[in-house]
Write a structure and sequence with these properties.
4 copies of one chain form a homotetramer. Chain A is of the alpha/beta class. Chain A contains 11 helices and 17 strands. In chain A, the strands form 3 sheets. In chain A, strands 16-15-14-13-7-12-11-8-17 form a 9-stranded mixed beta sheet. Chain A has a 6-stranded parallel beta sheet with strand order 3-2-1-4-5-6, with helices on both faces. Chain A has a two-stranded antiparallel sheet with strand order 9-10.
């Protein structure tokens, strides 16, 4: 008989909803090596947590996350709260021997990240950071193409994560723009995603030349707006950031994260150029990968728009969903992440991206901040 | 207290999986006006049906569809089997007072379609055909733009449903290519979808000039291949079809359905041109709608690529899912369909597309066949 | 010493300007096998013709086309006037032993086309119809790919020529919408182009099922508007046309021509699907060809966007222009056409598309009209 | 009577061909305020220069550029040689009172640029740098949209100039990769273009954080290959470069130039994001401009793909060419440049981009080099 993992999830907002869906869907679409039970959900407000419990499909609710990490009933802790709370919860969960899935950005500073990795390693639990975009089928295909050497020597890694919600000065100062809760604003929130994709697809960052910036220094406080007022608060974190850098093997990097790109909704754009080929990806067209193969006959080279939706093992994950051309959406990336995480837990194996990846990501983020503060290169 | 509808679903393959997912997901993402219970699933093979029951989340399983349509426990019958079985099941379900959701193509001929509509009308049940593509957010937005008159007088309705799986002569002769089970092959299977979109967005077809065709007249029988043999069978239905025609208000129509378009995976392409604007849609980029507004300033007119993912009531359905740019996939169209169907059942209201739409669609399909057979115009 | 051809061109409007440019540019960019002299230009209005002569770079001007076709000084006659004048001029030119480049649509009926071909054949002159789109580098590459068999058995030829200028009911009734001068309105004017591309790339049309149409039956007369009046005239020719059909080797065809597609400016869209590959082209992105190669590895198939701008003989014509990615425009198609025509004249060889192509095109146009009139299939 | 300018052009390779074409074509397509005569062409090799003279349409040839700048017959000097020769020629031309059109990159260092500007200013001649991409109709439209304030406060200017020819290590070390002749390799050659577009569209660069790089430090010498040998030479200039920076009014800049992006042929990609709208342009689709208008109704916002080919004064320059949708190519940018230059000369007016623009561009290039060398911010 297959083992059953009981899951406790902390947080019920955007990520809580996305994770809950994935916990429900993974066993329906993937032949997992263990069963899962959506056991307990945790939030600060009792009434809201009860509503979320019913709506998102959990059995129990609590307002004390310690109940989850300490409960002998719970096998897996899913941390879907703002980043300032990750370290304390993750370390406690590790001490209690729970497998841990932790949302990104991993921590609010490098020190916390180190402690989290140390705790998880010491406890020998399975630990994973939820960089869900690694499991877009198109990205997995990109990884395969690169691993095969089909791009040759890589010259450029170029990425931009662009959204547009902050272009409006009236967009409120919520937790994502507060120093305490977010750690580093837009830089931590979304640059962390493309740094992760760079590390996954290409290699480690060695040194960086960064520029973190705040376009709009004051915004109405979210809490104030909720009360019908309009009290302003200072934006003490970056709302945009860019950096150049060097990666392993002399790859030149150029990354940029912004929420000031009107018309770009969730534009995660990646281009990798090598001596034999190039790859281009844009999340707003997430079911496609563009691949230029320098080995094609000279008169018919061009970026191919591959619909990454083929079955029979041709493309990853999609065989478990729908026929070719019947595309997937945003939420599927979480289902794939959780399916792989559950299987890793069942087998007691490591599953990427681990807390070590979380730490390395944090080191890049910090190096960019350091470079920006000093106005010169910083080592990662 | 909200009412609870117990659902019985017949069929567990491609459509059964898509519908089951939608029955599970609709209450999680939409505030339905009734609860739903995935009560009983039905299939011909007992063992497979049990497996499907467990996998797809149903409480009970049966191999006799009559148990479902006659059970006093069941409120809603979901017909997800091949089209030759629709009429008998739907008529029996109607007689037993069940609300009915019926997969497309609605029936295998016009007469059946008439009988199905008559039975459902007489029984005063809620009846709906599962033309799921009507509830792509981009298509609903197109409908709104047209309804506002923003296209002006419509000149052209142009649609193509193109896939590529039959380009391989070894692709087997399955039920979709058999006369008995499919009614009309590719013509019925996928032309019915774009006919439906034309009727939804533009108006009724008046007369048609059709060409139905079979490129490859013999294929290995699916059953034979399953036994490791390669017995050939005759393809007695169209595997491709095109037609020109006139719609309401003098709109010129050009529709084509094929599974011989290599590289086109689920390419449902629609273009509508009017005196004030144009619309373009391609399912392979399903989260976008292209709109050309002739009222824009002369120097900045162009097809806008609208990402139909805005919340706050701006775009339909998407507020219940994820933030802007975090796109939906194929399966969401079924969730929207079933959410609307459940609400209609709860309120005892009609919900489009009804069995009358199913009948009218069937009449267009038949007129195209008639025109093709006679080599001249046929009235719908 | 290379021979010098003296050219006489009849017409100075849109086509006259495009041809004059090509006559001037061809020797500058291509190593022609003969010199050319822009000798005499002819138009009906003496003053306008003089202005055109100076502006377009011709040595002499005349208002009598017979002077050109009968002059012993002239070697080549370029017919760039409306189609009703083609036959008389072309036949006279042939009788006088001139090589002939004739604008499309070739003639205003099949009989004229037959006479033109007969005259040119009898006179043993070089004769060419100016279907300039054949010499878009991307189209020549498509031809090469098809000729190599890289598409396998061809199933579908699909083309649309869409513009939008007639969507405005106030667009005047000019010669292109008059029966006498145009022969067949939009059907002749632009359907002839995509028929030609179908014949060039795929094969002959065998039978057709056509629908020619006039959306707006009355328009202000161009002459009347020029006088500040607004006298209406009847549109006695098609302003839109579509047809289905069969080509050689069982290729299913679907062609449509319209000037009612708002937002489509010069949208010549072609798709060809075969058992091994597909091709897509859109003139509005004329430097690119999209090619889907079914022989690519299964996980990386997709439409390649080939920039058809490579030098060193990789792509046709472009080596004579600019480096890769430095695209060509509309007018270059005429330069290529005239370069090839001059070389053919110098060598006394035939050059496609000949007057025989003109005749066959006319036969397809007529068959579509016949089919539309009778409401049933017509043989070509 | 209109004045006639006699032009002397120095250089006959790539730029010489492009300029010659523009000198020939400008009077044919634009109503210039003066006549032009292609008087004398100059090159180092007498035989080649004679061939070029004949092929490119010039009356006279010389091997001594001083003959041109000193000749009383010459009114305009067109400098189309490598950048190390610009200063001496331009200064001499200015001293002789010639109007000057100078290719980019303007000079090989800032000092030269200053001297060139000083000489031209003192001589009161018309002086222009040939940044031809400013006169792509789509770019002029972008300028207009920005000037109207339709983008609001600008946050981001982002540009990449990507080609792929150096991805092959065997591509030879030609003058563009030599320090003496090029000044600064790929950085000067193509970063100068996107710096110019940034200055034209958005504003001045204030400070930069740069990274200039040489991926492949040795290449076969072009001269050696020409002799059938393969002698290697050191690449002493950047073959790729990126920089971040601040522009006027707090605009964040990110520019990158490379010839290592396989599949990118002449990919000049620009994105500008403001508080009210965004603009995107890619030269490989040069007839289109993408514009996102934040003022559009909330449910129908999206990047519009504007075909910048409308006549009647709607779009710049195109009225003089062809109808809508009949796109232009690379060479037309030179025709527009020269048409405007001639008109400015005729009226004795300044025409952008002037030598002052050349100087400012050079200052940005130098600041990027300085920043890269020191590893910290540099002021422009």
């Amino acid at each position: 008989m297959a083992k059953t993992f009981r899951v406790g999830m902390i947080g019920y907002r955007f990520m809580g909803r996305a994770h809950s869906n994935a916990w429900r869907q993974a066993p329906k679409f993937f032949p997992l090596k263990a069963n899962v039970e959506l056991h307990t959900i945790c939030g600060r407000n009792a009434a809201n947590t009860q509503t979320a419990r019913a709506q998102l499909g959990w059995q129990h609710a609590t307002t004390d996350w310690r109940e989850i990490v300490e409960s002998p009933l719970i096998d897996i802790v899913d941390i879907s709260v703002p980043p300032d709370l990750h370290a304390e919860i993750a370390i406690a969960a590790a001490k209690n021997g729970k497998h841990i899935l932790c949302e990104k950005v991993f921590a609010v500073n490098v020190k916390q990240a180190e402690q989290m990795l140390a705790a998880a390693t010491k406890a020998k639990v399975v630990h994973m950071v939820c960089h869900n975009y690694r499991r877009i089928p198109a990205i997995v295909l990109a990884k395969k193409i690169i691993a095969e050497g089909a791009l040759g020597r890589i010259y450029h890694f170029r990425a931009r994560y662009a959204q547009d919600r902050l272009a409006d000065p009236e967009f409120p100062l919520d937790w994502r723009l507060q120093k305490d809760s977010s750690g580093g604003g837009v830089h931590y929130d979304i640059n962390s995603h493309i740094i992760d994709l760079g590390r996954y697809l290409v290699g480690e960052f060695k040194q960086v030349l960064g520029l973190v910036n705040t376009f709009i220094p004051e915004r109405p406080l979210a809490e104030s707006l909720a009360k019908g007022q309009r009290k302003m608060g200072k934006v003490a974190v970056p709302d945009s950031a860019a950096f150049l850098g060097w990666m392993d093997n002399g790859v030149m990097a150029n990354l940029e994260a912004t929420r000031y790109a009107l018309g770009r909704k969730n534009h995660i754009e990646i281009e990798i150029n090598g001596s034999k080929g190039s790859i281009y990806f844009d999340f707003e067209d997430m079911n496609a990968l563009k691949f230029y193969n320098g080995a094609d006959p000279a008169d018919r080279r061009g970026f191919r728009e591959i619909q990454v939706t083929e079955r029979d093992g041709i493309h990853p994950y999609v065989a478990n969903w729908w026929p070719p051309g019947h595309g997937l959406g945003y939420e599927h990336t979480f289902v794939h992440t959780i399916a792989d995480f559950v299987n890793a837990c069942a087998e007691g194996k490591s599953v990427q991206p681990t807390f070590e990846d979380g730490l390395k990501n944090q080191q890049v983020l910090a190096a960019v901040e350091e470079s920006s503060a000093k106005g010169k290169w910083a080592k990662v």
